[in-house]
UniProtKB/TrEMBL annotation:
This is MerR family transcriptional regulator. Residues 1-69 form the HTH merR-type domain. It comes from Halobacillus salinus. One of its GO terms (molecular function) is DNA binding. SMART domains: HTH_MERR. The keyword Transit peptide does not apply. Keywords: DNA-binding. CDD domains: HTH_YyaN. The lineage of its organism: Bacteria, Bacillati, Bacillota, Bacilli, Bacillales.
């Protein structure tokens, strides 16, 4: 079992984020008799998934929908699959946009290096 601080450190997020996920129903921590949050390895695995979804800009509302479907049972697998497939499509678009940006930035770097090499750039 892990404390909120330990889990936050493992995942590279703030304890506040874990509390927020709990308020939103994305995670349900276990509690000690005194009310202290405790997390299992299973919690951590789930939270790693959630963190990756957030890092790739999946809205919290969609994650909550995924959780709601999961709680309803296996018969919602098609709905969960659809959410993940739609997000995967969005990630592919993000990758394409980042690749386009990389090309533009590489061109800009090349332009500046050429300018500096010919003495046409004053600084």
């Amino acid at each position: 079992m892990y404390t909120i601080t330990e889990v936050a450190r493992k995942l590279g997020i703030k304890p506040h984020t874990l509390r927020y996920y709990e308020r939103e129903g994305i995670i349900e921590s276990e509690r000690t008799d005194s009310g202290v949050r405790r997390y299992t390895e299973q919690h951590i695995q789930w939270l790693r998934f959630v963190v990756k979804l957030r890092e790739t800009h999946m809205p919290v509302s969609v994650i909550k929908q995924y959780v709601d479907y999961y709680k309803q049972g296996d018969h919602t697998a098609p709905e969960r699959l659809k959410l993940i497939e739609e997000h995967l499509t969005a990630i592919h678009k993000q990758i394409e946009e980042l690749q386009e940006t990389e090309i533009m930035l590489k061109h800009k770097v090349s332009t500046y290096k050429d300018m500096m090499g010919t003495g046409t750039l004053s600084h």
